[in-house]
Amino acid sequence: MTAAESPSIALIDSPELMPPAGHYSHVARHGGLLFLSGQLPITPSGDTLASEPFEAQARQVLANVDACLRAAQARREDLISVTVSVTDIADWPTFDALYRRWLGDHRPARAVAQVAGLHYGSALEVQATAVAAIVESREARGPREEDR
Question: Could you tell me the pTM of the whole model?
Fold first, then answer.
């Protein structure tokens, strides 16, 4: 049995994004976790934003992460780890400011790495892990003692 056939692994593509160009899914769900594939600055219509300023690329990447989370019925607050690859570490303060506004008070684990290059000449890529089905898990456990 392959992973795609396994009932314990769900492969999810966001209807808000272009289908993946390679052999992968936008999101894989397994064991209560969501694994989001690296998101590049590509618009829902498939346009690459590699020639746009870094801030425009970063905004699109974060919008793509949101689309992946929605497809998996999750939210930003469910993120537990985020990995960011940038081609120029000098862009990090710009990203960090956008990321802070995007996430608000939520502060998942995070890593950043400068890389030599990214697909399509993009300036950044974001990959993430989130908790899946928090609402379902709460419902399955029933009300908390203090809620009774």
Answer: 0.86
